């Protein structure tokens, strides 16, 4: 006949210890999962910010490379030299916001854009950029009627030279700036044109800063200095041969916890704390101007 040893159950202390160990393990898994999810969300946001900045740079660079473009034409059939159809400033920039981004042209040589007065926050104000050139079938997007268009997709302005000779052409004046007055409430890079309200191009662009690469008489083809738009030596926009752009991008959602490092470097080189929990990063690009206009 078999005998059985007496069996004893788990004591309360052993059960409590097991539960504590289980909770520690589960807690570690939850913390790791949460941390991994937060890190993944931040990496995704940074990737999106980089893609948006690159898209904005592509749009701006394409236009800037056309700045000042004008088809050469002879004054008359016997002439041996050529003159430019458009001889106005190739580009213009403001160290403060534009007074009116959609202001009409003030003549064949002027885009009419003026800058707001410098205020106490001028050092951190977002800049504005204007790009002017003659639009042709080769350098502009065409509409269904094969007419060159501006950044809004509208027909470029029909212009006529004073002459002689009289020459009909299309003029593009694209005005880029950052604005938060849209329906989404997000800061957006916008583009306006003479007589046309600005339309958003890229969302979550919080600021745009411009530095002008200026040439001089001894070095007419390369920049000898980079200056802010309000510090252009001599005010001669025909001496600008390069433009350096900084775009301050932000994440669309709040991703930073209270214990996270919320510091970032803005476009002026200052260390700033993010006050709303969004990621921010400054991106830079430099564009060489292909067409040097003297006037």
UniProtKB/TrEMBL annotation:
GO biological process, alphabetically ordered: type IV pilus assembly
InterPro entries: N_methyl_site, Pilin-like, PilW
Keyword tags: Membrane, Transmembrane, Transmembrane helix
Coiled coil ranges: none
Transmembrane segments: 12-33
Pfam families in the record: N_methyl, PilW
NCBIfam families: IV_pilin_GFxxxE
Protein name: PilW family protein
